[in-house]
Amino acid sequence: MSFVVEEREVLKDSDVTTTASIKKSTQPTKAYDPSYDPLVDKTPGQGRDYAPTYWVDSAGEPPADDGPIDSDVDVDVVIIGSGYTGLTTAIHLAENYGIKATVLEANRASWGCSTRNGGQAQCASGRLKRSQWIERWGVDTALKMHEECLDGMETFKNLIKDIDCDPQTGGHLYVAHRSKVMPTLEKEAKLLRTTFNYDAQILDADTVKRDFVGDNEAAGAMHEPEGIGIHAGKLAFGYLKKARALGATVHPSSPVIGWETRNGIHHIRTPGGIVRARSVGVATGGYTSQGLHSQLKNRLLPILSNSMVTRPLSNAEIEACNFKTNQVITDTRILRHYYRLLPDNRVQIGTRSAITGKDAPDSKYAQMLKNDLARKFPALKGIDVDYSWWGWVDVSHDMMPRVYQPNSSETIYYAMGYGGNGVMYSAQAGKRLAQWIAGEGTQLDLPIFQSKLPFPNIREVVESEAFAPFRRLGQNFLYRWYHLKDEVL
């Protein structure tokens, strides 16, 4: 199967004209599966519909794609996963190296994390703070990691400048949910200013509630200058249009159901045919099934995040909540909340969800999030919720992502493990993954580019198939401990 590309130029969304625009979005053949669990299910399915998110419902008609793989084909580069990382990798490969990638997706384009997240682009690449970077790697490496994040923000801004994804700029407000957190927050802000030359400012509770948002829990906050809220669905669809305009092909309903490497060529088997590729980039995030490839098995702990969007708030409700900012907001809980006022005056909020996929549809998790919203904003108690969903987050076992070639003798590369900070960093990871695929990865000198995603400490046990339930038991214990630390101790 081949496609002729003529006069493809990336302009504004409304101005992009391609020969492939004649095609239409591949329609789903199966309903959305609310209980999919990457630790249990062998594949994410095939041809399943999107999760019922606000982002998909309000993003407009999904853009055209290139249809499922329907015959054997030879290509230079295959990208597995059509989310933010996979699509930005394809964009960077085309723009920087003239490589037109073939992107495979099990279900609909950007079906996983990219249409289920909170739309918060923050200046972070994993779950660790700058002070923890210093503890782990020392000041010099931490400073380089910070520069990588700043460069990532610029990469992200450049990518979205011609994508209509409703950007809400102004920075990030990190709200202390208890007064006992403030000393730690003040210490981190000072470190950011003095060591990293990053203008993080401490705000007292009165300032937060008067000038930013009337979060009833706010005991103060740290404001950092970098942070952008975006419409997650519009961003995903914009990336898809841009990647195809540059010559990449994107094939939904094409899950990887087999993978062999013979004589340096990867034989990627899909239901419609075998894709033979010289190089493979894996960008499956929290939806990475255990059987995809041995280099990825047990390298991530996927966790569920619950999210909801209210009906539009009235002017009186906005005033009662004192929403004076549209900046992205998170709180200081370990099991953090992320929230903001959207451009159409709805409130979006998210936090942890169930532990297993089979428990995810239980209504108690949506009710917990409603209760959390009411605790922060009493005026919104009982407000109608128009959208409620959940999705898997790719958390690495050391809380930092990797963009890496795990075996120097194989042309396999991956980018994942963002730990909930993938909206921005996926754009940078796509750039770095493209570098690896193009043969420039050895020039990357940061720890996240020089080592594999780690196993848990008890590696010899974790590698057993039978250990998955025990990982969930451990996660349940940790959630209980984190709740105690967040709310009681």
Automatic annotation (TrEMBL):
The keyword Nuclease does not apply. PANTHER family: FAD DEPENDENT OXIDOREDUCTASE DOMAIN-CONTAINING PROTEIN, SARCOSINE DEHYDROGENASE-RELATED. Pfam families: DAO. InterPro entries: FAD-dep_OxRdtase, FAD/NAD-bd_sf. Keywords: Oxidoreductase. One of its GO terms (molecular function) is oxidoreductase activity. Signal peptide: none annotated. The keyword Oxidoreductase applies. This is FAD dependent oxidoreductase. Coiled coil: none annotated. Residues 1-70 are annotated as: Disordered. GO terms for cellular component: cytoplasm. Residues 16-29 have a biased composition (Polar residues). Residues 1-15 have a biased composition (Basic and acidic residues).
